[in-house]
Fold:
Amino acid sequence: MHFASPLPWWLVAIVAAGIGGVAFFSYRRPLVPLAAAQRGVLVALRVLALGAVVFFLCRPIVLMPPASAGDAVVPVLVDVSRSMRVGDADGQTRIARVTGLLAVELLPALSLKFTPELYGVGEALVPATADRLSADARQTDLMGALAAVRERYRGRRVAGIVVLSDGGDTGRQSTADEGRGDQEGPPVFTVGIGSPDGLRDREILGVTAGDPRLDQASVDLHVSAISHGFGRAPFQLRVVANGQPIDSRRVVPAADSSPVDEVFTVSPDPLNATVYTAEIAPTDDERIVENNARSVLVNPAGRKRRVLAIGGAPGFEHSFMSRALAHDPGLEIDSVVRKGKNADGQDTFLVQAGGGRASALTSGFPVRREALYAYDALVIANVEGDFFTRAQLAMTADFVAERGGGLLVLGGRSFAQRGLLGTPLEEALPVELNDRRGGLVRASFGPDDLAPRNKLMVTVDGENHPVMRVGPSPQETRKLWAALPPLAASAPLGGPRPGATVLAVTAAPGGAVYPVVAVQRYGRGRSMVFAGEASWRWRMMVSSTDRTYEYFWRQAARWLAGPAPEPVVITVPESSEPEDAIEVEVDASDSAFAPVPDATVDATLTVPGGDTRPLTLRRAADTSGRFTAALRPTQAGLYRVHAEARRGATALGTADRWFYVGSGDREFADPRLNEGFLGRLALASGGRYVRAAEASQVVSWLQSAVPQNGAFERRDLWHEPWAFASVLVLLSAEWTLRRRWGLR
Structure:
């Protein structure tokens, strides 16, 4: 025996004398007469207790003979998720192949040299038996299972961890953690189950819905699909809306395993939620059909979007644009036009507004933040920068960044001279205002390529953007824009800011190219600039059947105003499956969009089938105005959350949000054997990866991982339970005798 923290001999002598002195003087003159033997027993117990404490504080260590390899534990983790039902493992299902490996090769060999313990890995880590394995789990949380095993066996002798899986990790752990491993834990040896050559399968990779475009709020559905093992054989891709087929097309992949991207233009129900499903009809020789369909939910538009348009002067530009926006059934337009000056030299305005909002606009711009924040988008047309006070410009920037509203700035006056340069609103715009050299591109056009001056040219980004998309396809969009007459003029703006997108440009004399239409996200909202003059030409100088002008301005207003949040906002996960843990968040704000932490929020949940039940919310933080509720949906289908918020007797607002459970089966997303993941998982921990046919090698690798030398093992005694118990027994014995002999 030796000590990890030894004391010098002279200090040992002092401590021993001190312990003896303390014990002796404790019973030198007891309050109750004691016999010499009784006093001696109590002094001895006190000396032993204090001595034991000092002894263990010095950390005594003993050397123990080395344990045999058979004492080491080997946790064996088996993937029991539904992807293990796939029948590509040497003519068997993957789970049947695992059962055979365990019964014939792994468990008998491991039992001779180690102590194997079997677990199933699905949503959680659970003990299992080899003859009762079934692939029924909804997901595979491999990273979470490894973390649980390391925690469960902390302090025990573990030779290594064996994982039998197809490599599909669909659990809660982030894929960013997959390669990090745990260098201090035991090595992980992974066995890949499934065919390394892949399998014949067609899969819908994803379905996303773009922003509404065109005046009737049509939406582009972007569908991605892939075909493995079928070569370039064509297949039928179909889109279904709420169970009703609406479109179908024949798709021919460019090559085997080459992704296919298709765009379907659909028109959602404006009043009700619409579930769109993209699907591929299964064939007899396709082994997996669970991934042949995927869905996306398009929420109804809700109330009309409210837009405030401020014009610097009457004219064709303001009149034509206001008329186009006013005829959009999804928009509500309030307008302010500066008419001139009165006898006192003050600006006068023509105000057209509904809903009692006109009184807040008599000065040409809302004075109070609540009045401005009542709108979803703001249009500033041909208004010079010094028309606004600095406080109004700062409030406008906050309108975009904090309230989440949309901002459109257009017209030569808005960009003339210094204009908005150096103002709080400058950063909100998608282009630089202090660079008028055509910072976008400096290019020279040949005689055949040079576009007429002020002719709008759509960029590649613009062809697919909902603001510029006026045709059913990118090619048709470019053709329609090319047919329009040139603008009267265009302000020479600078290049785009980082993160901004230029949708259209125009050529200036000398070959410089300037942005005409540019957009960006700014804070919670969106902003857009239109540098052209006299866009009304696109209405007056074309055929009466051409609706490009209306489409453009209506789409711009909808794109800007559409994402603007309400005072009460409900947030739910984008995708989920039955039995997933879902958190619903409700944010309550006042009319200035400041959080209301003392709000009272009532919410209900409507489940598939129409039943409505109350939703219990709890306050997330004292100052955030956020309330949360935990859900675990049990069935697939469409759910609806309705929330009403108030502060005292004052209503803050209501909100409705739909979400769809079961949009896709993540367990069958790319169900092929993922050898890359299993290999990285093993390498990061110091283990190795092997295919199922060579799984017997794992036993020899585990033997190599266990130290084979005869070195004695160090055992720290102060960690032993009996050490604490011995001190406790000595103190208890002294206390018991004191009580029995009359001492208190």
Remarks:
- Residues 178-183, 437-450 have pLDDT under 50 and may be disordered.
